[in-house]
Amino acid sequence: MLMRWRKLLLLSLPMAALLLSAFFNGARASINDNVRGRAFNPLYGLISFNCLDDDFAGRFPFTFTFRFNVPACSLSQHGVHLDADDNFSGEAWNPVLGFIDFAPAVAPPDNYAFNVNCLNQCNAANQCTACYNENDQRVYGWGRVVVDGRWIELNSTIVPQTTMTNYLAPQPGIFSGYASSTFGSISFNCSNDSSCATEDYKVWLWKLELKEMSGPNWSFSEACTGGARKAVFKWLRRSGTQTAYRVVINTTNSTSSPVFDSGKLGGSATQLVCPGPMCAFTPTYNTSYYWWLQLWNENDEPTEYFQFDTNTFGVLTDNIAGNATANPVNPNLTFTTYRHEFPTPYFTWSPFEILVGTSTEFVSSSSYYTTASPSTSFPCVGLACQYQWTASDAAAQILASTSATTSIIFANIRPQTVTLSVTDTDLYTCSMTTPVLTINFQLPIWKEVKAE
């Protein structure tokens, strides 16, 4: 008996070395695939979407008397991937079905008709048979069992249909719903039928990936009320769990010697306001800024630096023309702050008590700023400012709607407002609106008449 166990041990050593080597090679391959987890079919059991989630003992249609302790990805290297165009590729695995291909070089049963629901091309031209629509959060198309050619329809008639939470969800990248096939339904999440206590499974995007970075997120109206020297650095995750973040800002295209580095900040925040409670940095007028974002996942593992770039997932929200002028070399990598503060509209009116059908004079005493003196105001004179007067009374007569001084005759007695918009030479515009004005009837003139 002792000799038998020694022989088994000696035979196992080469096999262990082989499996260990395969583990390291396979794990690297599977890490490149961003879909993980397992789906469930009542007939064939669990379907693995990444070899990192394979169970060695569960790879075979029969049961071993003892469990093998074999690293993931040892026996096969497979995984499913969702690319930047939201198209699927790669292979899932089931011990009975074998591999399930999500980008086979064969036309699916609907001859790619599902492509009408895809946001990007997904057809024979790019060997694509399955896609994700982030707008309706639905999964469309087909997967194919490699060994016998049976098809799995992802956008099936089974309710709920296959979905994945998008970047607007608190936890994006979670699959749910059902696919259909000739061998029965395929559930992507045990929460579909509240069976998690019996068999805990789901499919999800596991890597911490970015969907969007945007800046400066500071509009005209916000600059009018909160000042021009402000920026809000925002981001949205495509998938994964964020436990910390870091924002780096610079005036050159380098993370070295930045003008601001937040350092690692814990939490799942999706924006950093500068200046603000977590940011002591105040942007300078008329300056182009590059910025980078780094995130940490639930295992405290950092991502690479994501750089703001409108050619990939960057969105320039404000001062677009000013950014192109200030940084003509690579405006796709920056946002640019406003040149100066915004105009300050102000006006008075007389008489203060407004009567319907009579003329009321409105006089502007607004001010503006210049690039040379970005924080020092000057009275609006000459052509320095443009004016636009409007009234909530659609029937009101505005005698000079684009002058610094105007007269308005109100036609209705109901409460009204008057708004003045002031635009400077850089086309920065701010508005001022009166409190609700009460428009009264003119009282009749009483005259005593002697009785005859």
From TrEMBL:
Superkingdom classification of source: Bacteria
UniProtKB keywords: Signal
InterPro entries cross-referenced by the UniProt entry: Ig-like_fold (IPR013783)
Signal sequence extent: 1-29
Keyword Signal attributed: yes
Protein name per Swiss-Prot or TrEMBL: Ig-like domain-containing protein
UniProt source species: Candidatus Falkowbacteria bacterium HGW-Falkowbacteria-2
Taxonomic lineage of the native organism: Bacteria, Candidatus Falkowiibacteriota
